[in-house]
From TrEMBL:
Protein family per UniProt: Belongs to the TrpF family.
Name of the protein in question: N-(5'-phosphoribosyl)anthranilate isomerase
Entry keyword annotation includes Amino-acid biosynthesis: yes
Pfam families: PRAI (PF00697)
Gene3D superfamilies: Aldolase class I (3.20.20.70)
Enzyme Commission number(s) from the entry: 5.3.1.24
Domain N-(5'phosphoribosyl) anthranilate isomerase (PRAI) per the UniProt entry, residue ranges: 9-206
Keywords annotated in UniProt: Amino-acid biosynthesis, Aromatic amino acid biosynthesis, Isomerase, Tryptophan biosynthesis
Domain of life according to the entry: Bacteria
GO molecular function annotation: phosphoribosylanthranilate isomerase activity
Organism: Acetobacter lambici
Pathway: Amino-acid biosynthesis; L-tryptophan biosynthesis; L-tryptophan from chorismate: step 3/5
Encoding gene (name): trpF
Protein's UniProt keywords contain tRNA-binding: no
Length: 214
């Protein structure tokens, strides 16, 4: 059986104040902003900056980038103070970004089966999520659910996070099966794409944390 500790919770894809405030109020550990224009949760650096000031110091902020250039990241950091950079890129590129910007970097790691699971972590954390469909227009945030059973015997010695298709009514089961030390949700706490539901945020955080204490 997995050994549980406190479960970290990341709410990703914030676009508006009500959702952001709910994340802070209900104790999310990380609040994520998507800087990828094809996402329905895309925000500009200026929008992210306006939101981050609402909960300064009460939750860590994460910026999500897809195959970014250094200029892409620098442009965002000129406006928005981010604590973590989460990127879709190669392991080599992720390591380079960490060196250039001096911030913790999380590498999104889409998988299709146990053979795809990473054996090491080139940066501060990896996010395990389902590999997107071939016709997907974005690498993540597609509300796909991972086959959690593929993680039941996986025991990495580095920090990681579970993402993909998590919701209020399944996050506890996901934590129990996978032993995930942290979870990431976006569409699972929304009333519409990019619009977070405060009640769902509260329930998701509560259910995740209760699973960690079970």
């Amino acid at each position: 059986m997995p050994e549980f500790g406190p479960i970290g919770v990341k709410i990703c894809g914030l676009t508006e104040a009500v959702g952001f405030d709910a994340c802070v109020e209900h104790g999310a550990d990380w609040i994520g902003f998507v800087f990828f224009e094809r996402s329905p949760r895309f925000v500009t650096p200026q929008q992210a900056a306006g939101l981050t000031t609402r909960g300064l110091g009460r939750a860590s902020t994460v910026g999500l980038f897809v195959h970014p250039s250094d200029e892409d990241i620098a442009r965002v950091l000129e406006h928005a103070a981010l604590d973590v950079l989460q990127i879709y890129a190669s392991e080599e590129r992720a390591h380079q970004v960490a060196q250039v910007f001096g911030l913790p970097v999380w590498l999104s790691f889409p998988v299709a089966g146990p053979q795809d699971l990473p054996v090491s972590c080139p940066v501060q954390r990896v996010l395990i999520e389902p590999r997107p469909p071939k016709d997907a227009t974005r690498p993540g945030g597609n509300a796909q659910k991972l086959d959690w059973s593929m993680l039941s015997g996986w025991k990495p010695v580095f920090p990681w996070m579970l993402a993909g298709g998590l919701k209020v009514d399944n996050v506890a089961e996901a934590v129990r099966i996978t032993g995930a030390p942290a979870v990431d949700v976006s569409s699972g706490v929304e009333s519409a794409p990019g619009v977070k539901d405060p009640a769902l945020i509260a329930s998701f955080v509560r259910n995740a944390r209760q699973a960690g204490r079970a």
